[in-house]
Amino acid sequence: MRMEVIAVGTELLLGQIANTNAQWISRELAHYGANIYHHSVVGDNLTRVVESFEQAKQRSDVVIVTGGLGPTEDDLTREAACEVLQDELIEHEPTMNKIAHFYKKNDHQMTENNRKQSHVLKKAKVLENSEGMAPGQIVEANDATFIFLPGVPAEMKSLMNDFVFTYLTEKYQLETKIKSEMLRFIGIGESTLEEKLKDLIAQQTNPTIAPLAGEGDVAIRLTASGKHPERKIANMKTSILERVGHYYFGSDSITIEEAVQDLLVQKSLTIGSAESLTGGKFIERVIRLTGASSICQGGLVAYTPDAKQRVIQVPEEIITRHGTISSECAEEMAIQAQKLLHVDISISFTGVAGPSSSEGHEPGLVYIGIKANDAPAEVIQCYFDGSRDKIRQRTVTKGFELLFHKLNL
Amino acid sequence: MRMEVIAVGTELLLGQIANTNAQWISRELAHYGANIYHHSVVGDNLTRVVESFEQAKQRSDVVIVTGGLGPTEDDLTREAACEVLQDELIEHEPTMNKIAHFYKKNDHQMTENNRKQSHVLKKAKVLENSEGMAPGQIVEANDATFIFLPGVPAEMKSLMNDFVFTYLTEKYQLETKIKSEMLRFIGIGESTLEEKLKDLIAQQTNPTIAPLAGEGDVAIRLTASGKHPERKIANMKTSILERVGHYYFGSDSITIEEAVQDLLVQKSLTIGSAESLTGGKFIERVIRLTGASSICQGGLVAYTPDAKQRVIQVPEEIITRHGTISSECAEEMAIQAQKLLHVDISISFTGVAGPSSSEGHEPGLVYIGIKANDAPAEVIQCYFDGSRDKIRQRTVTKGFELLFHKLNL
């Protein structure tokens, strides 16, 4: 089964938006093993839209068209479809009622062009659009099946989810279902991870094993097809975690801060921070999560040496003797934060974000302190590459990594 | 002059990435008034790449091709180009030297397939790639000019900037230069802004005036073409700012936090925050900026009532009597933060981010306090719609808006 995706809209050819609709449709259909051979974009011009539909009809079995179903003059998908599929437009009554009802409810005058959105091809199977006005349409012609969807991503996605995936899988018996799971690791480099799984990767067939480097973490995507893909994935996951389970913090869309939050909740522990170069970025990532109040008291952000004394109560002597970018300062920041915030675990960040040096240290030098319960504070020294933004992000991610491994014992 | 953009790469048809190259090229060329009629994506399959080049040769004057110039077996753009343009490949010596040098420097063995990246069409004008290995190529055939560029966005962009824009503007006398400026406003709604500029918008021709709603701010894009577009924009900008200049905080890519930072620097003032629901997001957006140390001491993040007493020293009595989500608590937070952080201006945030209610208040209720120098603290009450994330973002943006208008007198 040969498929293609056509997007209709001049805004795409002007570069105002990227064709993310084609990406989304392709990625989702890839799970079913569908073969998409072409993406194309054509502007709001009847001749060119007709040409691109004609070409698609020749070369593909299924053509998914997004866009050009709106109420204005330059929405031409319906007209082009009639020409190519030798059909005519009729008014779809349920849609017309929906449009009229909408205008009545909002006390607006319905203009004549709004009627256009209720027009469908006579031969079309009409798909109700729960997110907007213009319905989707499926037209089964002799050469090819055309599926017309609105260009607004939310509307396109809801129609794909509500009708199109089912239609395609049933009609074309797309059985080779593909399942995948993304295993997420932290504290291990991509090359070390690959080294440890070398033989598994060499033998991979089904599931396939694809290592992917992220920002501060590493992931492995397992993709299985055929019968019982879940079972194949589960078995491979077990083999992998036997070797590198220590670094695994969760699957799919989980973030390292969520993994840390889960552990804090499980262990009924609270956390707080004392931050210099990260400027509140750590505590912000904690408080961003729903349920933060059960694990988090708050944080102290002290960007200047003066604020470190005043806010975090780092003794002046430590700053004079060791500077604020020092293991000693990080240690003291963690100790004081635990006391001041009244938390079980505190974490501190001090270092040089750049772009210029500070206290004679180059950008990228960072100290992270952790004080957990009654144990003495621990400090680690790190070097991070990159821009000011990257150094600050990597510092915070490293903080979550250290906390995860401390809590996950 | 009819143009089109073809992207070669199966990763696009699998939906692993969106075709942002076509978007970028189109947006940049739109400034020169170029007409792009088609975007298409084709996978790494020789027959289909040849077909798409053939079609483009028929219908377009200029064809920009991205991707398929790498070293591996499935990089087929060169081979397809030879077939369609009846040409042959030769080794480009400077590129070959560059590749060999790279491998030598990094002490790696160069594999035979790396040689492939130095192959170019005999008729091609070769464009040196300052960001990577494979050079760009321009081939002027009878029917159409083909421009071949690597698919890696940074390499594609550098070749466009270094050679292709100049080549196209010279060859096709693309004179109708378009200039645009984005005027950014805060503290005024999109509809009020439109109302105040109604007659200007009604008369618009050149420059055009397009209002755009953003997240917390509103922008107007002025786009002028023809001779002296800068002058046309400057004149219209003056007319617009005469009416709504109070809300204008800068142009193009400036953010509201940068505008606030500029004002603080100008006035030699320092700032600090006391944050509850925003969790450090305000101070993080200040410290993120280069040069933060000259304007910012730090911040206090207190998420729980206990932390508000302990860290920000809000008197227990205020919390018992008014709750933490109150004008009184916001006021006290601002007052204490100014003292504790030793800053000229302090700002406080307390409210309900959701998803559940807190102290009997619905998500979205927020108090923002500001204490500037010796003036009494001011508190404003706001309601924000949306998810936890949105409420927290809107709160912080509102804070910057209040500071901007306070400082910009």
UniProtKB/TrEMBL annotation, chains A, B:
Gene3D superfamilies: 3.30.70.2860, CinA-like (3.90.950.20), MoaB/Mog-like domain (3.40.980.10). InterPro entries: CinA, CinA-like_C, CinA_C, CinA_KH, Competence-induced_CinA, MoaB/Mog-like_dom_sf, MoaB/Mog_dom. Signal peptide: none annotated. Residues 4-171 form the MoaB/Mog domain. CDD domains: cinA. NCBIfam families: cinA_nterm, molyb_syn, PncC_domain, PRK00549.1. This is Putative competence-damage inducible protein. The gene is cinA.
